[in-house]
Amino acid sequence: MRHHIHHLAHKPSANLIMTPPFILVFLLLTQVITATTAGQRYANITRGTTLTAQGSPSSWLSPSGDFALGFYPLDSDTSLFLLAVWYDSTSPKAVVWSANRDAPVAAGSTLQLTSDGRLSLKDQDGKQVWNAGAANASFAALLDTGNLVLAASSSNFLWQSFDFPTDTLLPGQVLTQGSSLRSQLTDSDTSDGRFQLVAQTDGNLVLYPLALPTGNQYVAYWSTGTTGSGNQLVYNETGSLYYAVSNGTIVGISPTSTYSTGNFYQRARLDPDGVFRQYIYPKNGTAGGSLRKTWNAVAKVPLDICRDLVVENVGSGVCGFNSYCSSDGDQTRINCMCPPQYSFIDPDKKYKGCKQDFLQICEGYNPGEFELIPVDNVDWPYYDYEYYTNVDQDRCAQYCLEDCFCVVAIFWSNDGGCWKKRQPLAHGRMGSYVDRRALIKVSKSNASLTLPPGPVTTITKKQRTPMNRVGSALLWCSGFLNLILVALMSVTVLGHRRKRGQMLQRQTSMSVVNLRVFSYQELEEATNGFKDELGRGAFGVVYKGVLASNIRTDIAVKRLDRLLHLDNDKEFTNEVRSIGQTHHKNLVKLIGYCDEGSHRLLVYEYMSNGALTGFLFGDVKLQWEQRVQIILGIARGLLYLHEECSTPIVHCDIKPQNVLLDDKFVARISDFGLAKLLKSDHTRTITGIRGTRGYVAPEWFKSMAITKKVDVYSFGVMMLEIICCRKNLETEIGEVEEEEPVLVYWAYDCYKDGRLDLLMKNDEEAMSDSSRVGRFVTVAIWCIQEDPSLRPSMHMVTQMLEGAVPVPMPPDISSSASSR
Questions:
Q1: Both ends of the chain: CA-CA distance in Å?
Q2: Per-residue pLDDT, 714
Q3: pLDDT tens digits, residue range 635-689?
Q4: Helix axes 466-512, 569-580, angle to 10 degrees
Q5: Cα dihedral sign for 56, 62, 63, 66?
Q6: Are residues 624 and 753 in the same domain?
Q7: For labeling, which of 71, 203, 507, 632 is most exposed (least CB within 10 Å)?
Q8: HSE-up (13 A, CA, CB side) for residue 295
Q9: Mind listing the pLDDT tens digit for each residue in 525-562?
Q10: Mind listing the pLDDT tens digit for each residue in 237-280?
Q11: Looking at the structure, do residues 335 and 241 belong to the same domain, yes or no?
């Protein structure tokens, strides 16, 4: 086991360890209760005071307004809530404590300081979900430290949330022996997760992976290796975070106060990926210097969980079975990836691992149907079932290819080692420290996974004896008579139900896909008469609105004015239903629709940061790492549309204006599925071309079929724009007149001449990551090939971007540059 422990020579100040990290309650009593627009600012919360989910106010604020206590919505529909404390002055907001993480409550639930002085959370049916505190608390208060307290009339604390942390510590908070933090399951699922940070009673501070759903501990993957009584994890008021040992030694996570709490909001969180990180957020524009006005990770343990989470006998690893993880030195998140021709079982819960997208069974196994793809610096270090020495790579590959059980061979060139592995693969990792090459078996035909035929289909004509035929005939006749009787009964029953069924059909079909049917009046009121315009596109105008029935449920309403071929309600409803069945974290979610008379509108979740365009070509530009994650997010969203949703969708208008950013700057593709609402024929007239100038694939202008590859082309153009923060079509670029005005051609010239530095001019962050810049530019050039057959699929694009497969040299595009 690897430990990243720093023993410092000096002893911690006694004040940092022994002084209770809470402000005096009498300061609260001097505050004045003040109403605010977001909630109410309270000096204290008296007995009988009640807070209602979706009621008014929606939260109680600390005296400074930095923290809020209340019902925190878990989704855009605000249908489920956590009773939580969160940072209310940051964007995004950050939950720092919750009472009911495993049992979210619905609208109408209440929090009350009862008449006997307890905090009581009841659901919408009045059933108590959670309670806290001993009887006779005189009041409750949310302090400016983020600590929720119940206090007696003497101002002594009878109960405090700091003693019952969930996954987060705040400055002024101590994790004492016997206490722990537990991660939530995923970023969107707040239930108990797969990792735990424990301040053990033996004095050791330990990070454990957990088995779900039981929560039993596997072998630790990080610890301080300390012993003693009185040890505690301290997050002091100045922003230092360290483990204080009773003998005077401290083990530093962030032992010195580099970022003061006066200039930065702070928190330390055990994240869903098992890493304990310290985050800071600049309180004003100048405090952060080069730091973004968001939550920035500045310290973490372990340093690389992909490398350090080592459990030899059980468990799947960080990212799940049949996957592998890489941190790439990123402070914020690890990256979970699937091998070639594998895909995530659940893209929203990647810890569940990956599955093969092709069939590999021993019955009828033919080695000629498979090949091995080499991926450098990848290994699954456990569960080998066969090992060879003194072989070369070709022989290692041959051994795996001829073995129907083998799914991966790991080759080590140093001593000619070859390890064969079968499913499930566990503890996969990728990094420069992995001096192995994975030879991953894939299908040459990339056939989709199908079940082998059942016993009935294996019966041949020779096996059907005359008795078989007689029995089959009798059974067939009997079945036919039964069908006639059932049909007669059905006609009678259906006659009575037909009218009622027609009335309910539309509402029922929408409920299946969880879409809400709005009236035009509702949307007119929600948008204040369609006054706040967000933008205009190929399909109409988009307006911002707020649903009257919910608290701060912002929506975007798209008024459709170009429906050229849908002449009846059923056709429109079917298309909307198809869009409503499409769910992915990189797609904008459709909430509902309106189809009333001549009014046809779509209601989407509101994306607070607007279109990607504003962060590429304006004064405010995203940092390189943010742009990388946006490119990956768009690629995964397109992959889902093309290959993973129930009905494949070709977008036909991929461009930065149709990529929106949520409050966490996650890329969300918009307007998918709307191409079907236009004329279905793919005319080659200029007026019939779908898409936007500069992003349109060449086949739109030729007598060629329109396929998913038109989106791949547009994605390649947009990739170059995101990489360079420049528009594809400009009248001029920079100050040098000789520079190519069309970005895609200029980018290719820079790539061909080995001058990517010209593309990334003045972007030092990107150039420090030159290998990934080169890989991304190469992938983009593959995507913009004029011949659609040369362009990779979005599955291959995603694999190349993630580094799961090598990126070969692309063909020369100069032959397709006649329009330059």
A1: 58
A2: 94
A3: 999 998 998 877 788 988 899 999 999 888 999 999 888 766 554 443 333 334 5
A4: 90
A5: negative
A6: yes
A7: 507
A8: 20
A9: 899 899 888 888 767 889 999 986 645 678 999 988 75
A10: 888 999 999 878 888 787 666 788 888 999 999 999 999 999 99
A11: no
Domain interval for residue 389: 324-443
167 Ramachandran zone, left/alpha/beta (phi>0; psi -120 to 50): alpha
- Given 271, 357, 403, 653, which residue is catalytic? 653
Report whether 656 contacts 676 (CB < 8 A): no
pLDDT at 204: 93
Task: List Cα–Cα distances, 388 to 380, 391, 420, 479, in angstroms.
Answer: 16, 7, 9, 59
* pLDDT tens for each residue of 42-86: 457 888 899 998 854 468 899 999 999 999 988 765 678 999 999
Question: 22, 145 in Cβ contact below 8 A?
Answer: yes
User: Would residue 457 count as lying in a domain?
Assistant: no
653 is catalytic: yes
CB 445: neighbour CB atoms within 10 A?
9
Q: Same structural domain for residues 392 and 286? A: no
- Which pairs count as long-range contacts for 664-667, CB under 8 Å and 24+ apart, including other chains? 664/92, 665/294, 665/609, 665/622, 665/626, 665/629, 665/630, 666/585, 666/586, 666/629, 666/633, 667/586, 667/612, 667/629, 667/630, 667/633, 667/634, 667/637
DSSP state of 363: T
- The pairs formed by 552-555 with CB atoms below 8 angstroms and a separation of 24 or more are 552/58, 552/78, 553/73, 553/76, 553/77, 553/78, 554/606, 554/608, 555/526, 555/591, 555/603, 555/604, 555/605, 555/606
Residues present in the chain in total = 820
Instruction: Examine the domain organization and report whether 288 and 363 are in the same domain.
Output: no
Judgement on whether residues 111 and 203 belong to the same structural domain of the protein? no
Residue closest to 634 by CA, chosen among 701, 722, 505, 532: 722
CATH number for the domain that contains residue 419: 3.50.4.10
With contact defined as beta carbons under 8 Å apart, do 631 and 771 qualify? Answer: no
Yes or no: say if 221 and 213 are a contact pair by the CB < 8 Å rule.
no
**Side chain identity at 421, as an amino acid letter?**
K
Q: Is 558 annotated as a binding residue?
A: yes
Shared domain for 734 and 622, answered yes or no, is yes
Collect all residues with Cβ–Cβ distance below 8 Å to 109 and sequence separation of at least 6: 52, 53, 71, 81, 121, 122, 123, 124, 129
Q: Is 137 inside any structural domain?
A: yes
3-state SS class at 123: coil
d(CA 197, CA 207): 5
Final residue of a domain: which of 142, 165, 188? Answer: 165
Whether 259 is covered by a domain: the verdict is yes
Helices (H), 513-550: 520-526
Tokens of 578: 């198809």
Both 769 and 707 in a single domain?
Answer: yes
Looking at the structure, do residues 790 and 715 belong to the same domain, yes or no?
A: yes
